Amino acid sequence: MSAPLIDPFQRAITYLRLSVTDRCDFRCVYCMSENMQFLPKKDLLTLEELDRLCSAFIRMGVEKLRITGGEPLVRRGIMTFFNGMARHLESGALKELTLTTNGSQLEKFADDLYAAGVRRVNISLDTLDETKFAEITRWGRLPQVLRGVDAAQKAGLRVKINAVALKDFNEEELFDLQSWCAERDMDLTFIEVMPMGDIGNENRLGQYWALDDLRARLAERFTLTDLAERTGGPARYMRLEETGQKIGLITPLTHNFCESCNRVRVTCTGEIYTCLGQEGKSDLRAPLRASEADAPLEEAIRAAIGLKPKGHDFDYSRQELGGQMSRHMSHTGG
Ligand code: SAM
Ligand code: SF4
Question: What is the best residue among 21, 32, 327 to mutate for testing ligand 2's pocket, by most ligand atoms within 8 Å of CB?
């Protein structure tokens, strides 16, 4: 083990979110424009490089690894990577290996993921209406994703549904989504839409539905108990007493959570972003490729963590996109 990663604000970095591809089989309107320019394949880290990179982070104290994208399960050969990470679960160095997915490929991969040691999966799903699903994802088809949800549960994976809260889109589906998750014993988390990247003609402020309002609507029908549980991340949780289910709210806009941040993000080209809401990044690909030894890589990781900023500046309060990021969510992985 190397010395743990501690940032300038004394936060221990124990959680890595790794984007393994910027490509996706969907084009969600809040995430991508219809015509996206993807990175040349040669710029991507190879599966072996992804393994070396994650292994270095794990040596330096990362205990939780979330694989994301783009759509992580469209990366060719991705199961080789997951199977490789299983050794860190077996050694006990890694406590959790998980992923965030749009669910489209889960029918194919759920059993293999479970076999590799994955126990929980976040599936992004904003609506249960087939027509609206096609509209919001542009290229996605709801039945395929629902088969993926079934396959995940059948494989033994604990499922959490992530829904982006979208004004005039899934507002009226709040209770449908909630009761569907309750029936299937799945946790549910809502996310406020964030100003990430150019999304063509879509209007972000028009999409934004504040979660304080969503919470108030839930409170009209249920008794809500706030849970003290924190994951070091942006979600706050509450329990609906009548159903016993747990609902999470990810509120980057209305509530700041940076003081407890324990995470960093690495893109599929090896850029490390130590804050989702800041442009600052460092390159890990050059040190990774410069030497077969891991010392330069570890040094670069430590230097990057040494620059982790205090927090983000997202702000819609002046009816403009404060803190807008030039990169898309699919670039850093959300
Ligand atoms: N493709 C996978 C998926 O959709 O789950 C993983 C990557 S996706 C970028 C990760 C999460 O980011 C998804 O839950 C998606 O809904 C969310 N997301 C994308 N763009 C967003 C935005 N502008 N604001 C808030 N959440 C966003
Ligand atoms: Fe793809 Fe996920 Fe972005 Fe939708 S949110 S376009 S599924 S990366």
Answer: 32
Nearest CA to ligand 2 atom 8: 70
pTM for this model (two decimals)? 0.92
Query: Bridge-partner residues for 124, per DSSP?
Result: 162
Task: Identify which ligand lies nearest to the alpha carbon of 22.
Answer: 2
How far is it, in rounded angstroms, from Cα 112 to Cα 133? 27
Contact assessment for residue 256 and residue 311, using Cβ atoms and an 8 Å cutoff: yes
Q: Is 262 in the pocket of ligand 1 (CB under 6 A)?
A: no
**Cα 71 to ligand 2 centroid, rounded to whole Å:** 6
Q: How far apart are CA 167 and CA 297, in angstroms?
A: 43
How many angstroms does the Cα of residue 241 sit away from the middle of ligand 2?
A: 32
> What would the pLDDT profile of 218-258 be if each residue is shown by its tens digit?
999 999 999 987 766 678 899 999 999 999 998 765 555 67
325 lines ligand 1 (CB under 6 A): no
Is 100 near ligand 1, meaning CB less than 6 Å away?
Answer: yes
Q: How far is it, in rounded angstroms, from Cα 191 to Cα 214?
A: 11
Dist. CA 140 → ligand 2 center (Å): 10
| CATH architecture designation of domain 15-332 | Alpha-Beta Barrel (3.20)
pLDDT digits (tens, 9 = 90+) for 14-60: 999 999 999 999 999 989 988 889 999 999 999 999 999 999 999 99
The DSSP annotation for 127-193 comes to -S-HHHHHHHHSS--HHHHHHHHHHHHHHT-EEEEEEEEBTTTTGGGHHHHHHHHHHTT-EEEEEE-
Name the nearest CA neighbour of 139 among 32, 45, 284.
32
